[in-house]
């Protein structure tokens, strides 16, 4: 998996720039529209004034025709700006061209409006037209005429461009200013995070005290999570220390016995003494072996707990229990115990078969160790609604009710002479829990002995 490292600061800046750019473009478009409108309003007024000045000079001659004496001032007030060119034409009643540029486009009459404006193209250049409709009076009747004045649009385009450029510059400056502010603000806002990082970095590796630094409320949740994680880590570490302490203590005892017995064997005067010491050492080795096996099993459970998320196999519990029981029959025979299996049918569960076998071996092993010579031990598999139960029952002395809670703790034993670690029942419980099951201790049949019931969810 590739992890992408990203910077909060850059991200915030990116968002700011993108959003202000979008807003800026919209604002500029609006400014442009406004600028065009304003430039038109101003220039149109001059165009209309110019048309009016020409219209004032239209007179009806004695022969009834219209005559006009173009006042050049009227046109000059237009040409004052830029390199714009000015065109005009004056028309009499429909069809009568009087003077000016005959090819200059005009506009159709709009009812109720004496002056109208439009954009057009003349000689390949964009122009703005103002058309003024008037009538000249002869005293008897009035003769309508039309004055059309046009100018190229260079000046107004320059005006709008200047307005646009200025607002774009202002906007750019504002965006740059905002980006700077965000940069500084983010740097300041992130300070508590840097301080937090430094504070954690300065800690010694085994310092798991909660983080006490003051942080912004947005980060408090993260800090709380880390703090509760540290608390759990601390208790896990404590448990591990406790466990390794106990485990090494457990192993030290048989190792010390082995050394002592070996020393005795070396110094033994007779072969019989040496043999006796050797067999005691051998017993201690077997004991150490058993302790190691239990410790390894605990480690295996931890590993399986990590893998559990990936799912476990479907196994048929009756067949597995029958074969584990069969394996233990010779050992049972040695201690004169009648070991049997009961259970018909198939009972499927989801679990790791090796661990379930270890679970059962621990329970049968306990029964063989503690039930006493001549006892009966039964392994039973049965099915409830959505549970499968695995039971190991014996008719030995059992465990006194007040001790039952204690023996479930690691390294706690029932106070008997048989060699052991006190990990068996905790292991059984942990394996059951690993697959969603439970374990409980009950009296055996008729209130005698011990029945250990382990249930698994049916799978
Ligand atoms: N079937 C039983 N009958 C009587 N007492 C039992 C029985 N099973 C367990 N106990 C008691 O419970 C104690 C705890 O058992 P557990 O299996 O946890 O540890 P252990 O047998 O002492 O050591 P380990 O199994 O790790 O070698 C035993 O020491 C024993 O006193
Ligand atoms: Mg045991």
From TrEMBL:
Source organism, top-level taxon: Bacteria
Sample GO molecular function, one term: phosphorelay sensor kinase activity
Enzyme class: transferase
TM stretches of this protein: 12-29
Histidine kinase domain segment(s): 246-459
Catalytic reactions on record: ATP + protein L-histidine = ADP + protein N-phospho-L-histidine
Catalytic activity, EC: 2.7.13.3
Matching InterPro entries: 2CSK_N (IPR013727), HAMP_dom (IPR003660), HATPase_C_sf (IPR036890), HATPase_dom (IPR003594), His_kinase_dom (IPR005467), HisK_dim/P_dom (IPR003661), HisK_dim/P_sf (IPR036097), Sig_transdc_His_kin-like_C (IPR004358)
GO CC annotation terms, alphabetical: plasma membrane
Keyword annotations from UniProtKB, A to Z: Kinase, Membrane, Phosphoprotein, Transferase, Transmembrane, Transmembrane helix, Two-component regulatory system
Location relative to the cell: Membrane
Signal peptide: none
Domain annotation HAMP: ranges: 187-238
Cross-referenced CDD domains: HisKA
Name of the featured protein: histidine kinase
């Amino acid at each position: 998996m590739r992890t992408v490292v990203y910077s909060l600061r850059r991200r915030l800046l990116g968002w700011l720039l993108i959003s202000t750019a979008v807003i800026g473009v919209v604002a500029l478009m609006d400014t442009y529209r406004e600028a065009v409108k304003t430039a038109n309003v101003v220039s149109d007024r001059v165009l209309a004034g110019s048309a009016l000045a020409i219209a004032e000079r239209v007179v009806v001659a004695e022969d009834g025709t219209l005559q006009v004496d173009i006042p050049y001032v009227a046109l000059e007030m237009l040409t004052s700006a830029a390199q714009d060119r000015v065109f005009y034409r004056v028309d009499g009643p429909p069809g009568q061209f009087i003077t000016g540029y005959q090819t200059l486009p005009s506009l159709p009459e709009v009812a109720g409006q004496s002056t109208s404006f439009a954009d057009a193209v003349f000689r390949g250049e964009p122009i703005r037209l103002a058309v003024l409709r008037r009538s000249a009076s002869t005293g008897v009747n009035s003769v309508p005429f039309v004055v059309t004045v046009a100018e190229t649009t260079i000046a107004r385009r320059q005006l709008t461009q200047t307005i646009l450029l200025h607002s774009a510059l202002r906007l750019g400056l504002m965006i740059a200013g905002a980006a700077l502010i965000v940069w500084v603000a983010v740097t300041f806002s992130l300070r508590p995070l840097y301080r937090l990082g430094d504070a954690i970095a300065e800690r010694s590796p085994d310092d798991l005290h909660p983080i006490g630094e003051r942080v912004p409320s947005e980060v408090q949740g993260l800090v709380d999570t880390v703090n509760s994680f540290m608390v759990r880590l601390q208790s896990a570490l404590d448990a591990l220390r406790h466990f390794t302490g106990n485990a090494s203590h457990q192993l030290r005892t048989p190792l010390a016995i082995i050394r002592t017995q070996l020393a005795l064997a070396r110094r033994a005067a007779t072969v019989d003494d040496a043999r006796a010491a050797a067999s005691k050492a051998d017993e201690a080795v077997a004991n150490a072996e058993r302790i190691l096996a239990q410790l390894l099993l605990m480690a295996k459970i931890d590993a399986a707990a990590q893998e559990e998320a990936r799912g476990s196999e479907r196994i048929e519990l009756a067949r597995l229990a029958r074969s584990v029981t069969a394996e233990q029959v010779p050992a049972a025979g040695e201690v004169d115990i009648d070991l049997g299996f009961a259970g018909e049918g198939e009972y499927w569960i989801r679990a790791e078969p090796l661990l379930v076998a270890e679970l059962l071996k621990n329970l049968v092993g306990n029964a063989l160790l503690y039930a006493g010579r001549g006892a009966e031990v039964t392994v039973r598999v049965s099915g409830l609604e959505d549970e499968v139960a695995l039971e190991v029952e014996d008719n030995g002395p059992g465990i006194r009710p007040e001790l039952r809670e204690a023996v479930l703790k690691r390294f706690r034993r029932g106070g008997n002479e048989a060699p052991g670690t006190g990990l068996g029942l905790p292991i059984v419980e942990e394996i059951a829990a690993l697959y969603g099951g439970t374990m409980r201790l009950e009296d055996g049949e008729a209130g005698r002995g011990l029945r250990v019931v382990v249930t698994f969810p049916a799978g």
